[in-house]
Amino acid sequence: MQHALLGLAENTALPPELIDQLIATADADVAEAVACRSDLSRVQLAALSRFEGAAIRLAHEGRLTADDVDPAAQPRVALALLEERSGRPEWARLLAADPLVETREKVAACPGLPHDVMQTLGYDPKSSPSTTKT
Predict the structure, then answer these.
(1) Which of 29, 33, 32, 37 is CA-nearest to residue 12?
(2) Integer CA distances (angstroms), 35 to 28, 62, 68, 127, in order
(3) Among 50-64, 76-90, 119-133, whose mean pLDDT is lowest?
(4) Under a CB-based contact definition with an 8 Å cutoff, are residues 37 and 19 in contact?
C-alpha cells in the first residue's frame, strides 16, 4: 500500500482534491513525496508543514515562509529557514540559547545572523562560529 501511495504522490495528473486526501492520510514518507510536487497550493503546503521532514524540504526550497512556522514547535524547520536567510532574527536568538549543542552549532553556521547572536555564540566554546564545521 505504501508503494502505491508514493506512486500517487508523484503522479502529475493527480487532481488537487486527491492530493488533499493524500495529504490528510499521509505518513512522513508520503508527506515528503508530496512535498516534491511543484503544483501545491498554499493550503496544501501548510498542511504538509505538520511533517517535519516535508517542512524542512519546503523551507529550503523557499516554499514555506516565516509566517508558516512556529520556532518553538518546529525548531528544525525554523533553523532551515534561518539557513536560507528567510527566518526571523528572534528565532536565531531563541535557537542560540538551545540546550542542544548541535542546534547551536547549526545556528552558528547560518549566514546573516544578527550581531548579538554572533556574540552569544562566540562566547559558547561548543558552537563558536570560528570552530563550527561548515
Answers:
(1) 37
(2) 10, 12, 15, 31
(3) 119-133
(4) yes
Instruction: Please classify residue 95 by burial: count the beta carbons closer than 10 Å to its beta carbon, then call 0-12 exposed, 13-18 middle and 19+ buried.
Output: buried
d(CA 12, CA 75): 32
Three-class SS of 74-109: CHHHHHHHHHCCCCCHHHHHHHHCCCCHHHHHHHHC
So where are the chain's domains?
A: 1-64, 70-134
Question: What's the chain's average pLDDT?
Answer: 91
Q: Find the length of the chain.
A: 134
Separation of alpha carbons 100 and 132, rounded Å = 14
What pLDDT, on the 0 to 100 scale, is given for residue 119? 92
Residue of 65, 66, 121 whose CA lies nearest to 91: 66
d(CA 54, CA 30): 9
